Amino acid sequence: MKHRTLGKPGLDVAEIGLGCMGMSEFYGAADETESIETIHRALDLGVTLLDTADMYGPFTNEKLVGRAIRERRDQVVLATKFGNVRGANGQYLGIRGDPEYVRQACDASLERLGVDHIDLYYQHRVDTKVPIEETVGAMAELVKVGKVRHLGLSEAAPETIRRAHATHPITALQTEYSLWTRDVEENGVLATVRELGIGFVAYSPLGRGFLTGEYKSFDDLPADDFRRRNPRFQGENFQKNLDLVAAVEQIAEVKGVTPAQLALAWVLSRGGDVVPIPGTKRVKRLEENVGAADVVLSESVLAEIDAVFPVGAASGTRYPDMSTVNR
């Protein structure tokens, strides 16, 4: 697989990463053995960037990833996150970015992952009660003592990104980006990171699975799947978004690829500084996703995709509560 470089500090990663969240929570039941097999297969195929967070599980996803990479640490660019605070029972306890918590969270993640350093450490959500300079300053101390190699932000607004980057170089910004979530093209986020030389990691590049064409009705979602609470999967929004996906399926069929591969190839086409991290807990889906790296989209096909799926085409907001997004 080809590689891309994130940020001016220069973090080298394969052009498609793997999001591991769904292996532990949010997307219905998962099998740990299959999840570990999926991680191992990803590494076999040349994937290097593995993405997790302390809140996934909560806490169990980092342990799973740690077990999976124990004998293959040198093949992995390991990314995790802090800031979304949860209790052991899964309760959401708010957002913290104070220096004391930054240090505590990092040490806890290192222990769960079973590693001596984190390659890319993100602030998962911005804590508006704490100046970003204080949070990133504490993160920079982690770099200084060798616990972290590179710093990242997730779902941060342009001015916050600038202030953070002025405190310590930010290697990557992680934000949702896909055919049905193109906000970063209009809200200044993508322009800002490119101006500053920060890499862009696109999470949910398959629209939380919607762009795969796998879901034809709301009832296709498992009973414990968080997408049942997602506005884009509900009511009239579901059918309107399904119509958009049908157009993508038609283009993919003509191209001779799957809808998922077309959607991922589109994200890859947005620039050499963009690295998508599609999540999956199944080997078959992983192999399909990685196949997108071989899909080349011509200017005419890109124009056709843009015509049927322009900015703002998706119906419904990204989250039930958008108050913690892009702050």
Write structural notes for this entry.
There is one protein chain. The protein is of the alpha/beta class and 327 residues long. 36% of the residues lie in helices and 16% in strands. It contains ten helices and twelve strands. The strands form three sheets. An eight-stranded parallel β-sheet has the order 3-4-5-8-9-10-11-12. It has a two-stranded antiparallel ribbon with strand order 1-2. Strand 9 (148-154), helix 5 and strand 10 (172-176) form a beta-alpha-beta unit. Helix 1 packs across helix 2 (60-69), helix 4 crosses helix 5 (158-167) and helix 5 runs parallel beside helix 6. The radius of gyration is 19 Å and the shape is globular. The model has no long low-confidence stretch (mean pLDDT 95).
Quick structural overview:
The chain has 327 residues and is of the alpha/beta class. It is built from 10 helices and 12 strands.
Task: Please specify the SSE layout and strand pairing.
Blueprint: E1 3-6, E2 11-14, E3 18-19, H1 32-44, E4 49-51, H2 60-69, E5 77-82, E6 84-86, E7 92-95, H3 99-113, E8 118-123, H4 132-144, E9 148-154, H5 158-167, E10 172-176, H6 189-196, E11 199-203, H7 235-255, H8 259-268, E12 274-276, H9 283-290, H10 299-308
Parallel strand pairs: 3-4, 4-5, 5-8, 8-9, 9-10, 10-11, 11-12
Antiparallel strand pairs: 1-2, 6-7
Helix pairs in contact: 1-2, 1-9, 3-4, 4-5, 5-6, 7-8, 7-10
